[in-house]
Amino acid sequence: MAKRKVAVALSDWLLVEVDAYAQQLELSRSAVIQEATAEYLHRQRSASEATRYQAEAANALEDMRRFARERASAKEKSSLEMLRELRATGRGLG
Prior knowledge:
Blueprint: H1 12-25, H2 29-74, H3 79-88
């Protein structure tokens, strides 16, 4: 994969940390910064996707609750109640 050079300004203490970590792993400074950046972006994307999923799940749950409230307020018989009535009158399936 092609790579491009960029200029990044880091605090002195952070550069010391990056260099020490790179030396410990026998990697270049660029490799450490590239890996750290990729990991950071992955975590941010994962957190964003998790937040979106939680919002969609909460909306779906609220839709189900709203549907249940509407059915309860309409005083409609449940499918099970209708089936029991059909069976009691001999018009059911079995």
